[in-house]
TrEMBL record:
Belongs to the peptidase M13 family. Residues 16-391 form the Peptidase M13 N-terminal domain. Keywords: Hydrolase, Metal-binding, Metalloprotease, Protease, Zinc. GO terms for cellular component: plasma membrane. This is Peptidase M13. Pfam families: Peptidase_M13 (PF01431), Peptidase_M13_N (PF05649). Its cofactor is Zn(2+).
């Protein structure tokens, strides 16, 4: 391996000018298997697997030799999940009390009260709720109300012809699950569930609409909320869920028309369907924590049918995920002791500094943006807060208890604990030290209401980052990831927030129009792309535009940042590869990935990210430096006419 790259692993039958993604990853794409319990394989998945093994060691040590009350709780959660004898012995009996509660529903008010009573058990309601900073006033928390109620991934699954087989499979799945729960007439019940969900889906906004930061920002008072959905007794729901009414005193309704339409479905005539739908929610929510027949049937649909995955993940892996979901930061606190050296944070701080400086210079040179808007863009850039590795203060889990003999109870206790933690934010100052990912998560994110970029410890590893790699490779990989997350602050939605995190227009009308013209061109590019194994289905350019802007700006700015770090003198080639070539090859290496056909289709429908091959190839085809590095000409497949190349930031 040469400073983070292994040219011997490249495909000599493919030219980088024609297909950079397959030039770098071709042999791996041909030969690497997708694990039978995975829908994907690649660089991200390998790091996830590595982190999972480390976390398993941590959890098993806690289960066997805990050194604190927190570690004992971790151990108890894991022990309850791994006690298959106890789980099998219980069978469907943990569902009895909740199903009997549903049986008692005799009116719409009863239905609403029962939904509230089940809220703390993680049983999905027809209305979703979460607490987050107020986009209009990011110095306070506010409750957000969102559409919910579907068992399939997206509203389009209920209406598009291509998903007809999935719908049939879903009805059969609901029927089998209800039969396992001991319910009679499961076929008729499943049909009623599907009919009701189809009606609910018709009210849902599509994936493009729910990305819109302006359209989904609709402040409402409690009185206005009640008026929008008169059949829903909010006070009774709050009381049953043990939620302080102050939580709904002011809210943001993301999809107002959804609530208005839902009012027409909350009727006595549809009460039998609602009862069956709620029974299905009870069974579905508990399925991962019940006996093997429930687990296997749940996987058969959500794993195999929807994602094409061949095998259920081993129980220890599911147990690790369960404990991480309950006590992720407690595990992360242990994880970073051995897995995150101070040198990584120091190097990342330097990289981030150069990326921000590169953005600053690029903004100054934009030809399509006025000086007035540039000034505000610089102000936002100056206000960015980077977070690297792990939180400064980890969450307190001392009030969370676990019983090694009660798996479903543990799941519900952890959900109730997390729910209370969120509800307690109302009326409190914004916690700017909070993280929305654990240190052992292989990912990164941008949070617009806090204007922060966050990089957990687990992603700061090869092939994204290595202290042994040369600068060109690190900037082409983790540098582009950093640039991507900064870029989200300036994508089609993030650009609507100012440096304080407020949803506020800081653009002139002409500049916004110029920006939308550029993004429109990028949408058109991606609309034409269809990945392998997609039966001709194309990328949704409007759905993926935010991530595509992040990729394009991230790589382009990472290149500028590399030039800042390098200075005026280019280093000597290594193994015949110039530093700029190594930069782009590292980018392609980071996107090494393959996806099962069923998962490819699902992602094209619901995922705001483009397929990996386009995150690599389509981005470089828009960057002039790539053409210069590899001598790309109009005879090459990755050529785009200069007039068609898009540079936004």
């Amino acid at each position: 391996m040469t400073h983070g790259l292994d040219p011997a692993s490249f495909d000599p039958q493919i030219r980088p000018q024609d297909d950079l993604f397959r030039y770098v990853n071709g042999p791996w794409l041909r030969d690497a298997p997708i694990a039978p319990d995975r829908a994907t394989a690649g660089a991200f998945v390998s790091l996830v697997d590595d982190a999972e093994q480390i976390v398993r060691t941590i959890i098993e040590r806690c289960a066997e030799a805990a050194e604190s009350d927190e570690e004992r709780t971790i151990g108890a959660f894991y022990a309850s999940f791994m006690d298959t004898e106890r789980v099998e012995e219980l069978g469907a009996s943990p569902l009895t009390a909740d199903l009997e509660r549903v049986d008692e529903i005799a009116s719409v008010p009863d239905l609403v009260t029962t939904m509230g009573a089940l809220e703390r058990s993680g049983i999905a309601s027809v209305i979703g709720m979460y607490i987050a900073p107020d986009r209009g006033n990011p110095d306070r928390y506010i409750t957000h109300i969102v559409q919910s109620g579907l068992g399939l991934p997206d509203e389009s699954y209920y209406r598009e012809d291509q998903f007809a087989p999935v719908r049939e499979g879903y009805v059969a799945h609901v029927e089998r699950m209800l039969e396992l729960a001991g319910l009679d007439d499961a076929s008729q019940r499943a049909a009623r569930v599907m009919d009701l969900e189809t009606r609910i889906a018709a009210l849902h906004w599509d994936r493009v609409a729910i990305r819109d930061a302006q359209k989904t920002y609709n402040p409402r008072s409690m009185d206005q909320l009640a008026a929008a959905l008169p059949g829903f007794e909010w006070k009774a729901w709050l009381a049953a869920a043990e939620i302080d009414p102050a939580v709904l005193a002011e809210v943001i309704v993301s999809q107002p028309s959804y609530l208005e339409g839902l009012a027409d479905l909350l009727t006595e005539a549809l009460l039998p369907a609602w009862g069956d739908w709620l029974r299905w929610q009870v069974v579905h929510a508990a399925a991962p924590y019940l006996s093997g027949d429930f687990v296997d049937e749940n996987f058969a649909f959500y794993g195999t049918t929807l994602q094409g995955t061949d095998e259920l993940r081993p129980r220890w892996k599911r147990g690790v995920s369960f404990v991480e979901g309950a006590m992720g930061e407690a595990i992360g606190k242990i994880y970073v002791r051995s897995e995150f050296p101070p040198s990584s944070k120091e190097r990342m701080t330097e990289l981030i500094g150069n990326l921000i400086e590169a953005y600053r210079r690029s903004i100054s040179e934009l030809t399509w943006m006025s000086e007035e808007t540039k000034k505000r863009a610089h102000e936002k850039l100056d206000a960015f807060t980077p977070k690297i590795g792990h939180p400064e203060t980890f969450r307190d889990y001392s009030s969370l208890s676990a019983d090694p003999d009660d798996l479903l109870g543990n799941a519900r206790r952890s959900l109730s604990f997390a729910m209370d933690r969120e509800l307690e934010k109302i009326g409190q100052p914004i916690d700017r030290d909070e993280w929305y990912m654990t240190p052992q998560t292989v990912n990164a994110y941008y949070n617009p209401t806090m204007n922060e970029i966050v990089f957990p410890a687990a992603i700061l590893q090869w092939p994204f980052f290595s202290p042994d790699a040369d600068d060109a490779v690190n900037y082409g990989a983790i540098g582009a990831v950093i640039g991507h997350e900064i870029g989200h602050g300036f994508d089609d939605q993030g650009s609507q927030y100012d440096g304080t995190g407020a949803l506020r227009n800081w653009w002139t009308d002409d500049d916004r129009a110029a920006f939308e013209q550029l993004t429109g061109s990028l949408i058109a590019q991606y609309d034409e792309l269809s990945p392998e194994n997609a039966d001709g289905q194309t990328v949704n350019g409007a759905l993926t535009i935010g991530e595509n802007i992040g990729d394009l700006g991230g790589l382009g700015i990472a290149y500028r940042a590399y030039l800042i770090a390098r200075g005026d003198t280019a280093p000597e080639p290594i193994d015949g590869l110039t530093d700029v070539q190594r930069f782009f090859l590292a980018w392609a290496q980071a996107w090494q990935s393959k996806v099962r056909p069923a998962e490819t289709i699902r992602r094209l429908t619901v995922d705001p990210h483009s397929p990996p091959e386009f995150r690599c190839n389509q981005v470089v085809s828009n960057i002039d430096a790539f053409y210069d590095a590899f001598g790309v000409t109009e005879d090459d497949d990755l050529w785009l006419d200069p007039a068609d190349r898009v540079t936004i930031w």
